[in-house]
Amino acid sequence: MRGVSFLSFVFPKFCVACGSYDYFSEIIAVCKPCTKKHYLPQKQNPEPNQVKHPIDRFVFYDQAFYLQRRGHFEKTLFQALKFENERPLAKYFCLGQRALAKLLESDPPDLVTLVPSSPKSGPRPYHSAYAFLTKWKNLWKIRGDTSLRKVSVDKQSSLGFESRFFHAKKAFGFAKSDRIIAGLHVLIVDDIFTTGATVNEIARLYKQAGVRKVTCVVLLLSGGD
Ligand SMILES: [Zn+2]
User: Fold this and answer.
1) N or C: at which end does the chain have fewer Cβ atoms within 10 angstroms?
2) What is the pTM of this model?
3) What distances in angstroms separate CA 166 from CA 1, 152, 162, 176, 200, one per listed residue?
4) How far is the CA of 84 from the centre of ligand 1 (A)?
């Protein structure tokens, strides 16, 4: 991105997109003019935030929402978020979350889970959706489900096509099977919705475990670029 200097990463008070400083850049790492230019036009979507159900497969989640569409601007900012640990920038990707929360008020979630990005335990890399997760845990006063695990797929590349195909179905699992989650409304949070295959697989696991409803919320809907 033109205009991004090394300094803007060291001092995140400056807009990560254009390098200027204002109240917005101080709080969300993107200045007011850049936010107006890129974020506000996205709000004029006639069907706000709803991800259309794919028709080519069975869908296990009940509804899916996104906060922003991923265009070139969002893509570049998102890379910065992943690689530079730009925590203030994570707030830019929470814009619109209050309006979105209103859509869930009639049937609030009971439990929230973050799509695991790594099969390793211990100190985890910063998840782009972590700021959003924290906000919504507090907003709904719900706990996070820490039982979802990404099953290691390290040896996947050495497998044949058929094994890989079936292996994909087992990419996630629960560490504990004795939890009582029947009848709950589970919220799945992830950073990007591309095909929805990942959240759909996780939704399937939860539905199998007896949950009543699964809602997915992602920061970015891919396909705007
Ligand atoms: Zn700017």
Assistant:
1) C
2) 0.83
3) 40, 14, 6, 23, 16
4) 17
